[in-house]
């Protein structure tokens, strides 16, 4: 049951036909894991915490650097050298004291994934590391956890949704086969504009809210944003029959 305070706090969401009290209760009961609390993870965690997601796990072993501040909007100069996940949790609790937040102040590995993934309803990949993306994808497949992936460099970004519970859902490795050399392009090598991250993170948060409140979220679709032209492109994906990650599912 939603308290009177919760009904007031989330009244603008509850009035939506696609949310209502039932949807808001679903958000309150939901458990999500955000991997990476940097340029994408900052706004994703802010929006989902503000929306009333009741249980949030934050995973990041990195510390805050001055070069992060132009885009990682939860942090300020007094936070330099502090752990990103710990600091994010402190800021998020100030926004919504009723949210249960658990911190993993280390980089995700297979052992941590095997422990935490079964605890949650949804995983959000907000990392900028290719090897970690493959790990998250593989573990979501193994534990059959839906996954919202986001990425951005320069003026461009993309997001996609993977649902291992659907037999025809393409996975991240269908799109970027690990057997081929994939360039490690990220904001450290190509640069990034903060608002582009905000746009992609907003879409990740939107997809998460839709999924958690029972709405259909499209799989097999790569959504690409071109910030210079203010345009979106949708590419249709297909589950690869020989994908080493998901073909056996």
Give the topology, please.
Layout: H1 4-9, H2 11-14, H3 20-29, E1 31-35, H4 41-51, E2 55-59, H5 84-95, E3 100-104, H6 110-116, E4 122-125, H7 130-143, E5 147-153, E6 156-162, H8 172-175, H9 187-190, H10 194-212, E7 221-226, E8 231-236
Parallel strand pairs: 1-2, 1-4, 2-3, 4-5
Antiparallel strand pairs: 5-6, 6-7, 7-8
Verbal overview:
This protein has 249 residues and is α/β, with parallel strands linked by helices. The protein has one domain (4-236): Rossmann fold. It is built from 10 helices and 8 strands. An 8-stranded mixed beta sheet has the order 3-2-1-4-5-6-7-8, sandwiched between helices. Strand 7 and strand 8 form a beta hairpin. The protein is globular, with a radius of gyration of 17 Å. The termini are far apart. The mean pLDDT is 95.
Number of individual domains: 1
**Global shape:** globular
Q: What fraction of residues sit in β-strands?
A: 15-25%
Global Rg: 17 Å
| Sheet having the most strands | 8 strands, mixed
Count every helix, treating DSSP H or I runs of 4 or more residues as helices.
10
Top CATH class: Alpha Beta
Strand arrangement, largest sheet?
A: 3-2-1-4-5-6-7-8
Number of strands: 8
In the CATH scheme, what's the topology name?
Rossmann fold
CATH homologous superfamily label: NAD(P)-binding Rossmann-like Domain
At CATH's second level, what is the architecture?
3-Layer(aba) Sandwich
Mean pLDDT: 95
N→C terminal distance = 37 Å
